[in-house]
Structures are given as C-alpha cells and as structure tokens.
Amino acid sequence: MTTAIVTDSTAYLTKAEREQYNIRMVPLSVVIKHETFEEEVNITTTNFYDKVRNENELPKTSQPPIGTFVTLFDELSKEYDEIVAIHLSSGISGTYQGALQAGEMVQGIDVYGFDSEISCAVQGFYVLKAAEMAKDGASAKEILEALEEMRKTMRAYFMVDDLAHLQRGGRLSAAQALIGGLLQVKPILHFENKVIVPFEKIRTRKRALKRVEDMLGEDSAKYDQLDAVVIHGNCENEAKEWMATLQDKFPNVNVKLSYFGPVIGTHLGEGSMGLGWVKK
Q1: Partners of 197 in the beta sheet?
Q2: What pairing do the DSSP bridges indicate for beta strands 226-232 and 253-259?
Q3: pTM for the full model?
Q4: pLDDT tens by residue, 9-46
Q5: What does residue 111 show for φ and ψ, rounded to 5 degrees?
C-alpha cells in the first residue's frame, strides 16, 4: 500500500519539509478588509502582522472549501492507495471534518483522518512523523497507531499579550478572558478536550515563560530525548534567545524555531509565544 500525507497550512511546515516528504498542504484563509488571502500561499506571516497591526477590526479566518479537498484527493487517488489527513484541532476549526466529508465523496482511495487536537508546529510533529513512516512504506493503520502513541507525550503551552483576540474570535470563553483581564495576568494556555483553555494564571510574561520552561525540564529528565519547538507571533529575536537558553539548559532536547502564522496569529495576536515538545 502507498500512503499519501495531507495536512493544512496551520502546521506551518517549511516548503523544504513539505517537498522532502511530498506532504500535500491545503491552506486556510484570512480575510483582511474584505480581501481573502490563502495562508502560506499568497501572504507571508510578516506581511500579515504588518497589515493588521493598526486595524481596529480583527481579520476573519476560514477553513478550506470541501471542494479543495475533493480535488486533491481525486488527484492523489491516481498515485496512492490511502491518505492520512492530519489537521488542526476540530475544537477550533471545521477543517478536519471537511477533510473527512471530502474523503467520503472520492472514489478509489481510502481517506483516514487524524485530529491533532492542537495546531501549529506541534501539529507539524505529527505530520513529519507520518510522512517519514509513509516514505518507508507504512500503511495508514500503522501510521495512525504511531500518532496515537505520540499523543501520550505531546505537550504544548502558550501565552498571549492580549486575551481580547481569543475572546473576540470565539476561541476562548468571555468568562475566561474576563478573569485574565481583571487580574492583569499573562495566563498560560493549552489545548484540553480539543479547545483552548487556561492552564495557569501567572502575573508576568517572564514568569509564564519560566513556568513552561520548568515543565519542559521535568519531561527532559523523564525521557532520553525530546523534540521541541519555540513558536512566536512576530517576536523572532525573543524566541531565538529563549530557544538558545533551552538548548543550553537541556542538551537532550532538540529545539527548533517556528511561528504563529496568519490564521492562528489572528486569534493569538502579535507577541504570542509558545513551546511544544514530544518524546523522540
């Protein structure tokens, strides 16, 4: 069996990574002032933050049309027997469900979905693992079993400068955002049951980052090797400094750099910072 790997733009894989493993990417979109841009296709992350920095109105985001998936799956059916489609959490987007619906509409190929229950480069860890296995001839069933095993050690935490983005975009309840605003805190957020919720309420950005760093340290002591990623919302220099600190402090952790692109950046805002990791 030959297995194709499909994901969406919010995995924020580099073009080189996608080409190396022949990963197919379906873009989500952002709408800025009635103009629609496909993420990772016709708008860069830096350009996005520049465009929205002084806007009073948040951009809108939209999932890929089902027809886009159908067209891609039809094309893949000519070369592959199976597809594993790995997408951002179904709790914050309908992308995963759209892929499943498209899979039912296509003949000649079996489509298997994997809900990452998360997003960004942490979702990308799943995609890269799946793509490596597919390249080595693994079946969809074997890949899905491996991804479920990965899920057991996958961790991701992030903080935002302003909770209003998440609240206005409907990705965090008004009550949770209000609590954060009243206490003047920089809450650490994470995904739980596929949605974004506060993990801990911490008063300063510095302390929040240190708390996440300490949690990485706990897992680095528990496992031989970890893959980790620092994710930033257009604050690359700060992210690189943190990345260097983590690499020095935890030599058994392989740390790479990634970013919150336009779709996720719409909901988190500029200045956001995250850290994710998984057992290697």
Answers
A1: 190
A2: parallel
A3: 0.93
A4: 999 999 999 999 999 999 999 999 889 999 999 999 99
A5: -110, 125
